[in-house]
Write a structure and sequence with these properties.
Strand content: 15-25%
Helix content: 25-40%
Number of helices: 6
Order of helices and strands: HEEEEHEEHEHEHEH
Number of domains: 1
CATH topology: Rossmann fold
Shape: globular
Number of strands: 9
CATH class: Alpha Beta
Distance between the termini: 31 Å
Structural class: alpha/beta
Strand order of the largest sheet: 5-8-7-6-9
């Protein structure tokens, strides 16, 4: 993958000139509204970048956005990649490695997920303080390139505690329902059964989703501090589980997105 990473980075640098982002942002399902807050300088379609994976989901636009947000130079992925789309874990996480080579110092990740904790309701936000990885492959599998990171990266603090604490203070100051909890990553694309929701809660999960963890593993591998936050778009409570549609998930994410944007903007401004 090293050649692919270098090819993508070289092309992007040729298009953005001397622009050097200090913050990387990955926007999750239904959460692209943050782009409206960016003073955009350049946009690149994934499909035009050599060796860059293309999002196959119709509700992910597939653009790299370069500009200024809260006084900081940022690069935002408007449309993320998932293992269930058929990509390898190395392909899914290639954009994180490219953003690191472009110069970012901190990675911010958002996602839409289902609540496992009865105290966390649909439409609330959850800052991720830790995760459980139930996806079948690891993006670090295979030969390790020591220039990218160590063979056995430490994961004792995968999400930066100082950013977690700041985010919770920002949420409280703005009267935003925001929790902190453990995110469980599964493969998808199907949603979970009652028995699976029950199991995920038993093992310590507060929310479940199909993304985020591969990117976080690679960011930690490369020494990038990470902040991640979920919009809880549905409730996986076995006792009262109801069918949920993609349209409902997207509508909930869209409604909650301004609250997420508020937290991210203030966090980035304070870097």
């Amino acid at each position: 993958m090293l050649e692919s990473i270098q090819n993508s980075t070289k092309y992007i640098k040729s298009r953005i000139g001397d622009f050097e982002p200090e913050v990387g942002i990955i926007l999750g399902t239904g959460l692209g509204g943050l782009v409206n807050e960016i003073e955009v300088e350049k946009q690149l379609m994934y499909s035009n970048i050599p060796d860059f994976p293309i999002s196959t989901l119709e509700f992910h636009s597939g653009k790299l956005i370069f500009g200024t947000l809260a006084g900081k130079k940022v690069v935002a992925m408007q449309g993320r990649l998932h293992y269930y789309e058929g990509y390898s874990m190395q392909q899914i996480t290639l954009p994180v490695r490219v953003m690191k080579l472009l110069g970012i110092k901190t990675l911010f990740v958002s996602n839409a997920s289902g609540s496992l904790n009865p105290a966390f309701k649909k439409g609330d936000l959850m800052v991720i303080e830790d995760h459980i990885n139930l996806q079948p492959m690891n993006p670090l599998t295979g030969r390790n390139d020591s220039d990218m990171g160590p063979r056995f990266p430490d994961m004792s603090e995968p999400y930066k505690r100082v950013l977690i604490n700041k985010a919770l203070k920002i949420a409280a100051a703005n009267n935003i329902n925001c929790h902190k909890g453990v995110y469980v990553a599964v493969t998808g694309p199907n949603l979970e059964t009652k028995a699976e929701y029950r199991y995920l809660r038993i093992i310590g999960g507060d929310a479940v989703g199909m993304s985020t963890v591969p990117e976080v593993i690679v960011a930690n591998h490369m020494g990038l501090p990470v902040f991640a936050i979920s919009v809880l778009t549905d409730e996986g409570f076995p006792e009262e589980l109801k069918p949920v549609s993609l349209e409902e998930i997207l509508a909930t994410a869209t409604e909650a997105e301004p609250k997420l944007t508020q937290i991210l903007k203030e966090l980035i401004a304070g870097l």
